[in-house]
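In the design runs reported in the main text, the only information available to the sequence generator was the tokenized backbone. The following block is the verbatim input for one such run; it is reproduced so that readers can re-run the procedure and compare outputs position by position.
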């Protein structure tokens, strides 16, 4: 039970890290007015959620 919970928690933490990385990239793309990259990152973010 406990190891399953820990696995789920680490999976959630990994998703949170991935989301944060994508959000940082999206912020940079937004500053550069790079719409193609923003769209691609938005799709990636949705697939993780």
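Verbatim output:
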């Amino acid at each position: 039970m406990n190891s399953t919970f820990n696995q789920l928690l680490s999976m959630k933490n990994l998703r949170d890290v991935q989301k944060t990385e994508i959000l940082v990239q999206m912020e940079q793309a937004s500053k550069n007015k790079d719409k193609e990259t923003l769209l691609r990152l938005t799709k990636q973010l949705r697939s993780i959620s």
